[in-house]
Write a structure and sequence with these properties.
alpha/beta; UDP-N-acetylmuramoyl-L-alanine:D-glutamate ligase; 6-stranded parallel sheet; 4-stranded mixed sheet; 11 helices; 37% helix
Length: 296
């Protein structure tokens, strides 16, 4: 990457508690798992780390608790080069995500903790950070009124923002309309829009739907995925969004940005943990070149 786009991430920080097992327990059933690990996560923090690894100048706005998890989450971000001076400390526990991985796919339960203490007035205090950004990344693991405040601030500052609507919930039209790009997966798109095909036409070059192995669709076309064997899909969407934001902030066309983001996400799912396998820009470029030369 020839330049360092300024990216601000507004979102969650969680400690991911990951259980790997051969099956998911039924109601009332106890099973033996195969592995338990802890990983720093949260959709906001994941996107911040992914963007920093790819070469962006990243600032994060969020909230952690006054606990050891909060200390660790902040330390990890700093080690990755993310600016953390705009992350607050709330008088509560840090956010936690309980993740069960079965056959490379995951189910996630999120306990928001301090993430739900990130309120609109805190966003207003950080208006200058947003104004100095080239693009802003926002997700839905923080209060919806905070998302609305951030969207309004971006609009007033004329700074584009990417809304990653996860976990999915119905959204006010204003939030959707103010976003430069909206990036749901298939299930999230079905919650947001009654008719996704109609929505793709209503929001041309704004609505970008990720479809896993089928790649990405938007009103202007389809971008194929890079076939890989998944180890853990946790964080794949976050890597995609960070890479997409990086490329769009650098002036790339949407199709090119989606292809790069697909490659970054494909590399990420080859490792356990949301942040562990997030690639560098050089790794993404090399991977894309390899796939171009040897498509099978």
């Amino acid at each position: 990457m020839s330049q360092q786009p300024k990216i601000t991430v507004i979102g969650s920080l969680n400690m991911d508690l990951t259980v790997t097992s051969a099956k998911r327990p039924a109601a009332g059933e106890t099973i033996l798992g195969e592995r338990f690990e802890t990983f720093p996560g949260g959709k906001g923090a994941n996107q911040a780390v992914a963007a920093a690894r790819l070469g962006a100048d990243v600032t994060m706005i969020g909230m952690v608790g006054q606990d050891p998890f909060g200390d660790e989450l902040m330390q990890v971000l700093r080690q990755e080069g993310v600016k953390t001076e705009h992350i607050g400390r709330a008088d509560t526990s840090s956010g936690v995500a309980v993740i069960q991985v079965v056959d490379g796919d995951n189910s996630i339960t999120v306990i928001p903790g301090a993430n739900f203490k990130l309120m609109p007035d805190y966003i207003e205090e950080k208006r200058d950070v947003i104004q100095n950004s080239e693009i802003v990344l926002i997700q839905l693991e923080i209060p919806l009124e905070t998302v609305a405040a951030a969207a309004k601030c971006c609009e007033e500052a004329n700074v584009p923002y990417i809304l990653n609507p996860a976990p999915a919930q119905p959204l006010p039209y204003e939030i959707i309309n103010q976003a430069a790009y909206i990036t749901p997966n298939e299930s999230e798109a079905a919650i947001l829009f009654e008719d996704t095909d109609k929505a793709l036409q209503e929001f041309p070059d704004k609505l970008v739907i990720t479809k896993g192995e089928e790649g990405v669709v938007y009103s202007g076309g389809h971008v194929a995925a890079f076939p890989v064997s998944a180890v853990d899909t946790t964080g794949a969407g976050d890597t995609f969004n960070a890479a997409l934001g990086l490329m769009l902030a650098s002036g790339s066309p949407l199709a090119e940005a989606c292809s790069y983001a697909n490659a970054a996400a494909a590399l990420q799912i080859g490792s356990h943990g949301a942040q562990a396998g997030m690639p560098t820009d050089a790794e993404v470029i090399a991977f894309m070149r390899q796939k171009e030369e040897n498509p099978l």
